[in-house]
Design brief:
Distance between the termini: 32 Å
Helix content: 25-40%
Mean pLDDT: 97
Shape: globular
Structural class: alpha/beta
Radius of gyration: 21 Å
Order of helices and strands: EEEHHHEHEHHEHEEEHEEEHHEEHEEEH
Strand content: 15-25%
Largest sheet: 7 strands, mixed
Bound molecules: pyridoxal-5'-phosphate
Number of helices: 12
C-alpha cells in the first residue's frame, strides 16, 4: 500500500465530521453525534458559538497576520487580560500546547542561567505525563510509546511517580531547575494531583530556589471550573503552559510567567512567526469574554457536579463495566474495568456518543463548557445504552 497523502500517524476512526452545532458534530453522511470530547478539551464553547465565530470573522476581514517585527495592540490587549486574571506578569503566545510547554522549559532554564546558576537545567517531570510531541516535550515524559525511535532525546529531565512528593524531592540535586507537572493529568487518565502533592512541590520549589512549571494545556482555561486548575489547590506556579481551550478551537497557546521567572527571557531569546497574530488574539479574546463573564465559572462547577452525580448514579447499574468517576468540573474520567478504547469506539459507532479514551482504562468526558441539563440527560442515556449493549472482550 502506498503512503496516504495525509501522513498516517493517527489511528483515525470512520467518523468524518463536516459540521458542528453547539454540543453536536455532524458527519459527512449526516449522522449526528453528541460531542463530549470537544476536540480533546478544545472546543470549550461548543461548535459555532456566535461570540467566537463573529470575533474570528470580523478579525479575518480586518487583519489576519502581521509579523512580530511590529507592535501588537491585539497581543498587548490579550496578554493584559490574562495577566490581570492570573498569577502571571507576562505572556508569550504560541500556536499549540507543545510550543507553550517548550517556551515554559526554555523560560525555566533561562531563569537559572540569568540568575547565575547555569548548571540548573534539569526539570523533574512525572510518570505518565503528556506534554506534547516535539522532541523537547517527548523528552519530558517517560512514556516509551511517545519516545521510541526518536532518540537521542534531550537531556535535562528526570521522572518521579505522579503524586509522590517524597520521590520528587529525592530527585532534587544541584542540577535541578524545577518541576514540570500537570495539576490534572489528562492523557494519563484524568488524574488530579492531591493537594498535598502540588502544595508540597510549591513548598520545595520555594525552599530550594526552584521553579514550579505547570502544564495546564488540558486542565486549564475554565475546564475544571476555575480559570486555571491550580487555583483549586490554592497555589500559584512560576511558569505555566496553556493552550487547547484558550482559543476555543483556533490554534492558540500561551506561556505565562511571573516577572521573576521570566527574567531571562529578553530580546532575541525566543520567537514564533505566527505566535500571537491578530486572528489568534481575536479568538482568545472572544473565549475570555465568555469565560470571564460573571457566573460562567460558577456554572461550569455546578454543571460539572450535576454531570458527575449523574454518572455516579449510573455506575451501580453497570458495575461489571464501570468502576468510578474522577476529575474536576467538566474534566471527568470514567474508570473502566476493561479496555476503555474499545468501549469509546462502541459508544461512538453504535450510540452516536463521542468521548475520548485515556490511559489507565479511563473514558474521558470533556463536554463543551456550555452544556445544559438536557445534554447531561442525553449523555447519561447514551452512555447507559452503550453499556447495556456492550460485550467486553473475553479473557481468553
Ligand atoms: N500538554 C498537555 C497536558 C496536553 O494534554 C497536550 C495535548 O494533548 C499537550 C501538552 C500538547 O498540546 P498540543 O497537541 O497542542 O501540542
Amino acid at each position: 500500500m502506498p503512503i496516504t497523502p495525509l501522513m498516517p500517524v493517527y489511528p483515525r476512526c470512520d467518523v468524518r465530521p463536516v459540521r458542528g452545532e453547539g454540543a453536536y458534530l455532524i458527519s459527512e453522511e449526516g449522522r449526528r453525534f453528541l460531542d463530549f470530547a470537544s476536540g480533546i478539551a478544545v472546543n470549550l464553547l461548543g461548535h459555532g458559538h456566535p461570540v467566537l465565530t463573529k470575533a474570528i470573522q470580523d478579525q479575518a476581514a480586518t487583519l489576519i497576520h502581521v509579523s512580530n517585527l511590529y507592535g501588537s495592540p491585539q497581543g498587548e490587549a490579550l496578554a493584559k487580560r490574562l495577566v490581570d486574571a492570573t498569577f502571571a506578569d507576562t505572556v508569550f503566545f504560541t500556536n499549540s500546547g507543545a510550543e507553550a510547554v517548550e517556551c515554559a522549559i526554555k523560560t525555566a532554564r533561562r531563569y537559572h542561567f540569568a540568575t547565575g546558576k547555569p548548571e540548573r537545567t534539569t526539570l523533574i517531570a512525572f510518570q505518565n505525563a503528556f506534554h506534547g510531541r516535539t522532541i523537547g516535550t517527548i523528552s519530558a515524559t517517560d512514556q516509551e510509546k511517545l519516545r521510541s525511535g526518536f532518540e537521542p532525546l534531550l537531556p535535562g529531565f528526570r521522572y518521579a511517580p505522579f503524586d509522590d512528593l517524597a520521590a520528587a524531592e529525592a530527585l532534587i540535586d544541584d542540577t535541578t531547575a524545577g518541576f514540570l507537572v500537570e495539576p490534572v493529568q489528562g492523557e494519563g487518565g484524568i488524574r488530579p494531583a492531591s493537594p498535598e502533592f502540588l502544595r508540597g512541590l510549591r513548598r520545595l520549589a520555594d525552599e530550594r530556589g526552584l521553579l514550579l512549571v505547570l502544564d495546564e494545556v488540558q486542565c486549564g482555561m475554565a475546564r475544571t471550573g476555575m480559570l486555571y486548575a491550580h487555583e483549586q489547590y490554592g497555589i500559584v506556579p512560576d511558569v505555566m503552559a496553556s493552550a487547547k481551550g484558550i482559543g476555543g478551537g483556533f490554534p492558540l497557546g500561551a506561556c505565562l510567567a511571573t516577572e521573576k521567572a521570566a527574567s531571562g527571557m529578553v530580546i532575541g531569546t525566543h520567537g514564533s512567526t505566527y505566535g500571537g497574530n491578530p486572528l489568534a488574539m481575536a479568538a482568545g479574546g472572544a473565549v475570555l469574554d465568555v469565560v470571564l463573564a460573571p457566573g460562567f465559572l460558577d456554572g461550569v462547577r455546578a454543571t460539572g457536579d450535576r454531570l458527575r452525580q449523574a454518572i455516579e448514579q449510573m455506575i451501580p447499574n453497570h458495575d461489571q463495566l464501570f468502576e468510578s468517576v474522577r476529575g474536576m468540573g467538566l474534566m471527568l474520567g470514567l474508570k473502566m474495568k476493561s479496555d476503555s478504547r474499545r468501549f469509546v469506539a462502541h459508544a461512538r459507532d453504535h450510540h452516536g456518543l463521542l468521548t475520548v479514551a485515556a490511559g489507565d482504562n479511563v473514558v474521558r468526558v470533556l463536554p463543551p463548557l456550555t452544556i445544559g441539563q438536557a445534554h447531561i440527560d442525553e449523555f447519561v442515556s447514551k452512555l447507559s445504552e452503550a453499556a447495556r449493549s456492550y460485550v467486553p472482550p473475553s479473557d481468553d
